[in-house]
Design goal:
By secondary structure, the chain is of the alpha/beta class. It has one domain (2-118): Rossmann fold, CATH 3.40.50. The protein has helices at 11-23, 34-43, 60-69, 87-96, 108-118, and strands at residues 2-7, 26-31, 48-52, 78-82, 100-103. The chain has a 5-stranded parallel β-sheet, sandwiched between helices. Helix 3 links the parallel strand 3 (48-52) and strand 4.
Length: 121
């Protein structure tokens, strides 16, 4: 089963995405902050990351850069999911190494399809 780390500071969003992705055959991991996400990746590298951009402790862009800087997780597929409608933010995420950028509200079928492609499933 492919493990997907869901990172968002809103627990309701994390739980909703986790439940939905389970239906598509993914094993969700949950993190409520960028720091928690990095700790989890250090302990157990997932197959992909679904990452919110706007979080209080460390924004998604910082998380992407830290993931890419670690050889253990540098190739990890990252899908940014955010309510931001800023083209500069999208471009910044892509330059930092995000594979995809989706705007909330996300269609779970679209997210699952991207994750299946990204994880070879």
């Amino acid at each position: 089963m492919r493990r997907v780390l869901i990172v968002d500071d809103e627990i309701e969003t994390v739980r909703m995405l986790a439940l939905a992705l389970e239906l598509f055959g993914f094993e969700p991991m949950e993190a409520l902050s960028g720091a928690e996400a990095l700790r989890q990746i250090e302990n157990r590298v997932p197959d992909a990351v679904v990452l919110d951009l706007m979080m209080p402790d460390m924004d998604g862009l910082q998380v992407i850069r830290r993931i890419r800087a670690d050889p253990k997780s540098a190739a990890l597929p990252i899908i940014v999911v955010t309510a931001m409608v800023d083209r500069d933010a999208e471009e910044g995420c892509r330059q930092a190494g995000a594979a995809h950028f989706l705007r909330k509200p996300v269609k779970i079928e679209d997210l699952a399809s991207l994750l299946q492609s990204a994880t070879g499933g």
